[in-house]
Every structure is written in structure tokens, then in C-alpha cells.
Amino acid sequence: MDAHDERWNDEPGLVHAPGGRAVAVVTRMREAVARREQRRRRIEEVTMPQQAWSAKRERQYEHIKDGLEERGRSERTAKEIAARTVNKERARAGESRQASRTSVDDISSGRRGGLRSHRGAGGRTVAQLRNEARNRGVTGYSRMRKAELERRLAR
């Protein structure tokens, strides 16, 4: 019998970490199934934001919106970003009557997101970079721009 066995709780999804603090443990598979079910119910009860959207575009909209909400965006912002993204993808695929030049010529939203993934919103702030530069003894850091600070600190 392990020393931590007595700390386990009968309540599903909860494990007591050392020190008595409860830590929620939920598998990704269970969360994905729950999200998929919520999305299915939502699609059935909510009309599409635009009547021209196909079922595929509606699923894409819901997927993008759910992902943004999970990452902390407000529902209103998530809806707006999802709708803009789907409309841009429709324009790129020739599914819309009108399309701006940037919608067609720019790299796709999915590719752009893939290139920028795992970098956060924009990396560290200028204040954080300047603080690190000061601590490392970099001279002239107060006059540097963000890109230059990033280059100097990467050395």
C-alpha cells in the first residue's frame, strides 16, 4: 500500500495531492466527448449566423468559437472571431459572392494559426524584456524596441 493511497477520495475526478490540496483530474477524452455533445445540441437549437453557411462551415464556426472560449475569450468576442474566420475561409474557397483581396491572397487562417501556435499572444511584453535586459546587464536597453530586445536577449 502506497503512502498516498489513504489520501485518495471516493469522489470521481478528484485526487488529493500531497499537502491535502484537491486537484481535479479529468481526461481529455471525456472533455472532448462532452464538448462534441454540447456542440451537437447547440447546432440543433441555434440557427446559423448566416443562412449561406453549409453544415461544414457551421461546424467550423462552433469549433473555433468553443476553442476561443476555452482559452478565456468572452462569448461575444469568440463569436465575432469565429464568424470572421469562417467568412474568410468561405471567400478563399470561392463560396461567397464577394471576397476582398486579402481574404484570397493571404495565407489561410488555419496555416497562420499553425505557424503562430505555442507562442502566446505576442511573447513577453517590452517591460518584461527590459527588466530582464537590466538584470543581465545589457547596455542601452531603455532605448531598444521590442524586436531588438528579443534579439539581444536570445544570444
Write structural notes for this entry.
By secondary structure, the protein is mainly α. Helices cover 55% and strands 4% of the residues. It has helices spanning 28-45, 55-70, 75-92, 101-105, 109-116, 126-136, 146-154, and strands spanning 14-16, 22-24. The protein has a two-stranded antiparallel ribbon with strand order 1-2.
How would you summarize what this structure contains?
The chain has 155 residues and is mainly alpha-helical. The protein has helices at residues 28-45, 55-70, 75-92, 101-105, 109-116, 126-136, 146-154, and strands at residues 14-16, 22-24.
- Helix percent reads 40-55%
Count all strands and give the number: 2
Order of helices and strands: EEHHHHHHH
What separation lies between the terminal Cα atoms? 50 Å
Structural class assignment: mainly alpha
Taking pLDDT < 50 over at least 5 consecutive residues as the criterion, the unreliable ranges are 1-9
Most strands sheet: 2 strands, antiparallel
Look at the structure and give the mean pLDDT. Answer: 77
Strand content: under 5%
Strand arrangement across the biggest beta sheet: 1-2
Number of helices: 7
Q: Using the CA coordinates, give the radius of gyration.
A: 23 Å
